[in-house]
Amino acid sequence: MNIEEIVVKAREVMGKIDVSGVNFLAVQINLTGENGGVFYIEIKDGKVNVEPYEYNDRSCAITISPENFAKLIAGKLDPVMAFTTGKLKVEGDVGKALEFSKLVK
Questions:
Q1: CA-CA distance, 69 to 9, in Å (whole number)?
Q2: Any alpha helices (H) in 1-105, and if so which ranges?
Q3: Under DSSP, is residue 63 helix (H, G, I), strand (E, B) or coil?
């Protein structure tokens, strides 16, 4: 999957998630490797935005391969296990990354 396909898939998956209990969460996703790139997922005022840009005021940043991100949002990769095995790295507020992981589970 390339960055454009991943952004489309992330919009689709995140659009189905109940975010009514989330006040604000901004997660920048840094995809590594040849098909990598940057995009963000923002939850604000009960709405989800997924855009192919960097987010300077983010809660945290997650660095992961495109393949593992696709598995993560498909529910085939446990985020905590991915973190502990080094498949996923977090920069910033790890608590916010955990909050995000609970949403995508």
A1: 10
A2: 3-15, 66-73, 79-84, 94-104
A3: strand
